[in-house]
Amino acid sequence: MIGLTEGSTKWELILASGSPRRRELLSEAGLSFQIISPDVDELSGDGYSPRDLALTNARLKCMAISVARPESMVIGADTVVTLGGKIYGKPLDLKEAAKNLRIFSGRIHEVLTGVVLSCGDQRAEFVSTSFVKFKDLNELDIEDYLSKVYVLDKAGGYAAQEHRELIIEKFEGDYQNIIGLPVSLVLDQLYKMGFPIPTSE
After folding, report:
1. What pTM, to 2 d.p., does this model score?
2. In the annotation, is 78 catalytic?
3. Catalytic residue among 52, 78, 144, 153
């Protein structure tokens, strides 16, 4: 059991996610936490705004774990990529991934991450938004990128943390948010909720 004790209270931090990128981001921040991948059916974009979809899926993940571990601080998150009101999820295959990159080429799209934190009767929710501008990509650029980066498990069909120099011209906002979790905002919210930040030391 990973956690720490402050006074008579045993605190635990749980990341409700199977995402290796979110795990890496929290680890790099020096946090001590447990990973439990929630068994939930994530919603698609049908009928939801990008913001609502990110929050709803984050809520589903968080609550799936929190209901069984109400004494723990549980973090659920979901990242959505959107352009022109359309939501781009994880591509089904490389053909769809290449199509996405063609659409993003030379344009600015949004990356939104919904985050839900829950512990006992406390709950907090927020959405962080970043903007990404792609370079003008030709077919060789797209083929080269997809040959170097596995993208089928990533919203939008690309990974900002892998060979970003090949596709991204610039970005605005929280870079970690683009990868999958705005860690600084998560830490701020944990502090506001009175959670003693555990460290891996």
Report:
1. 0.88
2. yes
3. 78
